């Protein structure tokens, strides 16, 4: 049995029964949190000193396309409908070879671990089964916990999008699940559904039925930009043909233009929403869905979305998403001719959206999301002895507002340190770096993307 003790940390468990503890220890055995308290000890345990550190659950990115990592820096001035659909989904994605999927996923996942994200939902467009296999190889080679989302191939938009009547490749997905996913405790399967925004009703329902047969999460891009209304006009009804099939195994990315009554119904049925505030505000998706989900009695999970555009750092999404929500809440008070005397959405709320709600969205809340005995030891340690984070009077506010990636000192997944003393421990960072850069250069060159 392997044992590790994290000692003398400020533990922000996010578990209401455990709370926040000063000078506390966490005992880990075989990747599981066994005990949290003071003065813990265990024979032959590896000791990690957490003095001058805040210890929090690993962040969860509930929606990202990791394969775009090697084309970073091309989409910072792109809109969704004017550029991204044409240049990324209609061009670059079709040029990916299996090794491009591997290299993008590898360095995307390494970035996530470096910045404190221990679990990701990787929404993938595998052009062939080999593309999907290499994408999963990348996740396994980094040690990240992941929900691999098998979406439609990315090399034939006419077949797979725009009122498509072609269902997801069932036999390929079944074989892939059996060979690559089921026996790996850190991996689970999701299906990337197009939903009624992008395929026929019969196809949308069939894809969701397949996800349920496989006991896989169903995740959909829905309600972003003006795309739904441009197709359906006044007949667009939110979930449409899927309205009677909703449940906790359905996750919606974006959802900006859903009516409040659609959100109310979805939250009541247990549907989760993944908001990617930075990308949505830039690319023209619309106002983030956060306020509508909160109004319905739920909370969204945060995600990065497209790393061809922005950093994979989840603390940025925590801050941006929180402050945008506060802006709308405060403006509503001001428009009522009152002064803002109390903030409604808190720093703790946004941290929980990056941990607890992310875990719930991925159906992993029994395994991760809080520091709780019995859960897996996915843990992040954040320095408080730096001139930018000290003194830490309120640990949660330090994490949300003062810390950045330079303060994320140690990261554990399943109790294994993947980053320690500020450095990733994976030798692939250096071994595959040149191939990673060359992959991005080739894709951009072949796609003819204008970088000026």
Write out key terms for the chains shown.
Amidohydro-rel; nine-stranded parallel sheet; 38% helix; TIM Barrel; Urease, subunit C, domain 1; nine-stranded mixed sheet; alpha/beta; 452 residues; Cytosine/adenosine deaminase; hydrolase activity, acting on carbon-nitrogen (but not peptide) bonds
Question: Describe it for me?
Answer:
With 452 residues, the chain is α/β, with parallel strands linked by helices. It has two domains: 3-58 and 377-424, Roll (Urease, subunit C, domain 1); 59-353, Metal-dependent hydrolases (TIM Barrel, Alpha-Beta Barrel). The chain has 17 helices and 18 strands. It has helices at residues 80-95, 98-114, 129-142, 157-160, 170-181, 195-198, 201-213, 227-232, 260-268, 277-283, 290-295, 314-335, 347-353, 356-361, 395-402, 428-431, 433-447, and strands spanning 3-12, 20-29, 32-37, 46-49, 53-57, 59-65, 117-124, 145-150, 187-193, 217-222, 250-254, 272-275, 301-302, 305-306, 379-383, 408-413, 416-420, 423-424. The strands form two sheets. Strands 1, 2, 3, 4, 5, 15, 16, 17 and 18 form a nine-stranded mixed β-sheet that branches. Helix 1 crosses helix 17 and helix 13 (347-353) packs across helix 15 (395-402). The longest helix has 22 residues, at 314-335. The protein is globular and about 60 Å long. The mean pLDDT is 94. This is Cytosine/adenosine deaminase. Residues 54-418 form the Amidohydrolase-related domain. GO terms for molecular function: hydrolase activity, acting on carbon-nitrogen (but not peptide) bonds.
């Amino acid at each position: 049995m392997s044992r590790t003790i994290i000692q003398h940390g400020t533990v922000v468990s996010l578990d209401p029964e455990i709370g926040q503890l000063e000078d506390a220890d966490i005992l880990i055995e075989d990747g599981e949190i066994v005990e949290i308290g003071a003065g813990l000890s265990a024979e032959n345990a590896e000791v990690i000193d957490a003095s001058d550190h805040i210890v929090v659950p690993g962040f969860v990115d509930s929606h990202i396309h990791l394969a775009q990592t090697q084309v970073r820096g091309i989409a910072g001035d792109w809109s969704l409908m004017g550029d991204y659909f044409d240049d990324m989904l209609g061009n670059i994605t079709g040029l990916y070879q299996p090794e491009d999927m591997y290299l993008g996923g590898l360095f995307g996942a390494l970035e996530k671990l470096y910045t404190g994200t221990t679990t990701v939902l990787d929404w993938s467009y595998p052009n062939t089964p080999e593309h999907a296999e290499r994408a999963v190889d990348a996740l396994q080679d980094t040690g990240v916990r992941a929900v691999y989302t098998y979406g439609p191939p990315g090399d034939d938009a006419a077949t797979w999008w725009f009122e498509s009547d072609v269902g997801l490749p069932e036999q390929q997905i079944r074989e892939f699940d059996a060979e690559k996913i089921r026996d790996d405790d850190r991996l689970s399967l999701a299906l990337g559904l197009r939903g009624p925004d992008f395929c026929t009703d019969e196809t949308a329902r069939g894809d969701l039925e397949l996800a349920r047969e496989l006991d896989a999460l169903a995740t959909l891009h829905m309600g972003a930009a003006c795309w739904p209304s441009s197709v359906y006009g006044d007949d667009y009804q939110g979930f449409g043909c899927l309205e009677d099939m909703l449940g906790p195994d359905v996750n919606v990315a974006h959802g900006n233009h859903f009516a409040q009554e659609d959100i109310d119904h979805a939250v009541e049925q247990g549907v989760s929403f993944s908001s990617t505030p930075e990308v949505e505000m830039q690319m023209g998706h619309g106002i983030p869905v956060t306020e509508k989900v909160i109004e319905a009695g739920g909370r969204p999970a945060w995600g990065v979305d497209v790393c061809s555009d922005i950093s994979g750092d989840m603390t940025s999404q925590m801050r941006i998403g929180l402050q945008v929500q506060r802006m709308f809440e405060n403006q509503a008070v001001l428009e009522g001719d009152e002064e803002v005397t109390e903030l409604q959405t808190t720093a703790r709320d946004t941290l929980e959206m990056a941990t607890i709600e992310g875990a719930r969205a991925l159906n992993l809340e029994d395994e991760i999301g809080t520091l709780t005995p019995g859960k897996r030891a996915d843990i992040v340690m954040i320095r408080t002895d730096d001139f930018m984070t000290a003194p830490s009077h309120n640990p949660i506010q330090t994490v949300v507002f003062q810390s950045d990636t330079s303060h994320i000192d140690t990261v554990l997944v399943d109790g294994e340190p993947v980053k320690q003393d500020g450095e990733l421990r994976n030798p692939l960072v250096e071994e595959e770096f040149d191939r990673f850069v060359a992959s991005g250069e080739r894709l951009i060159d072949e796609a003819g993307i204008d970088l000026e």
